[in-house]
Predict the structure.
Amino acid sequence: MLVPDWSVTGLIINSTLETVMITLAGTFLAVLIALPLGFLAAANVSPAWVSHPVKWLLGLIRSVPLIVVAILFVVAIGLGPFAGTLAIALHSIGMLAKFYAEEFETADRGVINAVSGTGATWIQTLRYGLFPQCVPQVITFTVYRFEMNFRDATVLGLVGAGGIGYYIQLYVRSFQYDKVAVLVLVIILMVTLLDQLTYWARRYVR
């Protein structure tokens, strides 16, 4: 590995872009589903008979390891990045919805009651009374999860779910560690860049 084989740079760039797209698509799908589930799981805006079952469901989702989720999707729909996207999305839903619900539960109850007292519907109360209080933290949680998802997505190729992990598996099995070295360097570079981007995003929303 001390003498990286840079001849695979073009191939690795393409696979890295595929990993980024898996991460983006998976995180986007997760947010679309996790936000409504977060509202339903928040005890201060949903009745107990709704919030408790939703929290149990989210706990069940979080309890399944990502690699197992990825294998299930690969078996169900076949090899490729689509399986990886769905695995990232499903695994992220449980954690994001939990974070969102906990943040919603810390919102100022007085503001929520004031909006509700104007005759607003439940949806309008969430839109104008609850959500504006929580936007910075919701964005922070989402950006942080996106960073984690990229790290997770790099290994999904090990089970055939697309991305840069496929080539890690390919080159390790054929003992081409000089090419693995390039993969490792690219992953380090991407994680460093994403770490800086998420840091700037968190500073901006605060």
Notes: The radius of gyration is 20 Å. The chain is about 80% helix and 0% strand. The mean pLDDT is 86.
